[in-house]
Amino acid sequence: MSQPQKSSNLVWITLFLCWLTAMIATLGSLFFSEVMLFPPCVMCWYQRICMYPLAVIFLVALLSNDKNVFKYAMPLVLLGLFFASYHNLLYYGILPEAVAPCSQGVSCTSDYINWFGFMTIQLLSLVSFVIVFILLLFLKRKAS
Description:
Elements: H1 3-35, H2 42-64, H3 69-91, H4 121-143
């Protein structure tokens, strides 16, 4: 296998992992709200607004082998990362509830799941955005 072909395969695999992460996050959030009937809070909606398009963007980039996906995916990832970080800071009480945008309806600090004593929906979202962020940085390095 030649070096350019290895690089192309690595780019495709990275794009696939980005798409897979975005799809799992999207389907997971839909499962929690539509099957488990956990109503999303305001911060969850902001994160959904950032994550759902990423599943489509990465699929299109994957099918067309678009190495320039970094340019249009990274802004959504950074926004989602900001909202997910803010949500976790609220959840863990590092930021006071007075700065929470969830003043009505479902609280941003709702504890729907708590797997293994630490894995919450808020943390799952943050982990998803961090994984996509790292993969995109790796993709940019390999594609250039």
